[in-house]
Amino acid sequence: MASEAYASRSTDEVHTDVLFQARQACYKARDAFYDCLQKQSDKKPTELGCVGLLYPAECKKSRLAYENSCRPSWVKHFDRLYCKEKRVQRLLDDKETRGGPLVLPQKGV
């Protein structure tokens, strides 16, 4: 009888409120770290994050909070997105300084 009651309980129960709170904490820590990167953009980056992301020592505390609040795969994913966005922005900025705005060719013309 006791084993039947134990077997009937779902061990795969998902606590969505806990997952939601963990995601929100991760997003908050991520945003704080990337805000620090923007504010400290004039400082020389000396610290190395994952996927080659360099950041200044002034952001080390927020980076640790970010890494502790998020899953490692999420940190890697968000860092990749950030680096990609920065790379695209640099390319667009460079294109504008060399020859005006970027004009894409139109099909059928």
In short:
By secondary structure, this protein is mainly α. The chain has helices at 2-8, 16-39, 60-69, 72-99; strands spanning 47-48, 54-55.
Question: Features of this protein?
Answer:
109 residues, mainly alpha, 2 strands, 4 helices
Outline the structure in words:
The protein has 109 residues and is mainly alpha-helical. The chain is 63% helix and 4% strand. It has four helices and two strands. Strands 1-2 form a two-stranded antiparallel ribbon. A hairpin with a 5-residue loop joins strand 1 and strand 2. It is flat and about 60 Å long. The N and C termini lie far apart (78 Å). The model has no long low-confidence stretch (mean pLDDT 81).
Mean pLDDT level: 81
Strand content: under 5%
Structural class estimated from helices and strands: mainly alpha
Q: Name the helicity range.
A: 55-70%
The order of strands across the largest sheet is 1-2
Order of helices and strands: HHEEHH
Largest sheet: 2 strands, antiparallel
Rg over CA atoms, rounded to whole Å, is: 22 Å
Q: In terms of quaternary structure, what is this?
A: single chain
The N- and C-terminal alpha carbons lie at a distance of 78 Å
Our count of helices gives 4
> How many β strands by DSSP?
2
Unreliable residue stretches? none
The shape, in one word, is: flat
Protein name: Cytochrome c oxidase assembly factor 6
Keywords: Disulfide bond, Mitochondrion
Organism: Linum trigynum
Main location: mitochondrion
